[in-house]
Amino acid sequence: MTDTKxxxxxxxxxxxxxxxxxxxxxxxxxxxxxxxxxxxxxxxxPGHPNNPDILFAVTFDNARSNPHQGMLSxxxxxxxxxxxxxxxxxxxxxx
Length: 95
Hints:
The chain is mainly beta. It has one domain: Roll (Ubiquitin-like (UB roll)), CATH 3.10.20. It has one helix at residues 37-44; strands at 19-23, 26-30, 34-36, 54-61, 70-72, 77-79, 83-93. The strands form 2 sheets. Strands 2-1-7-4-5 form a 5-stranded mixed β-sheet, covered by helices on one side. Strand 4 (54-61) and strand 5 (70-72) form a beta hairpin. The longest helix is centred in the middle third of the chain and has 8 residues, at 37-44. It is globular. The N and C termini lie far apart (54 Å).
């Protein structure tokens, strides 16, 4: 099926490709090629309170982005591989 601009659309009822990531040691399936800081924190700590005194440190490894490993800052994002990008999220308190 194509849209009005001639681009190919996914057939109705067919799921998008998923990517397998690991967050804090647990595997998750996501559809996005790029994961934001906020999305990773939400996976690690679902429904976390919006409290300015609570901070999250996010590290990643085996990403498609350059660099392939590092720290993800608030507001940042990282391109993930189809399988095996690893995120570690730690909750801390502002001191």
